[in-house]
Amino acid sequence: MSLSDKIGNKAEELGGKAKETAGEVTGDEQLADEGRADQAKAALKDGVEKVKDAVGGVVDSVAKHLKK
Asked: What are the tens digits of pLDDT across the range 10-45?
């Protein structure tokens, strides 16, 4: 996962947490729900990036073994 992806995902997660907190403090349940959704979206993106990294590592490993 690139650094920019990590930063973007973390920013989205923190923005979602801020929305959730603001919604809870003000009693705006819709805003709190949006914040939770933003956090879930960021977590999903992070998970996808981790899978892509893992698959890339496996592909690299297989390629090294095939070159032998």
From this structure: 999 999 999 999 999 999 999 999 999 999 999 999
Q: Angle, to 10 degrees, between the axis of helix 29-67 and the axis of helix 3-26?
A: 160
3-state secondary structure the chain: CCHHHHHHHHHHHHHHHHHHHHHHHHCCHHHHHHHHHHHHHHHHHHHHHHHHHHHHHHHHHHHHHHHC
Q: Is the pTM of this model over 0.85?
A: no
CB atoms within 10 A of CB 24: 13
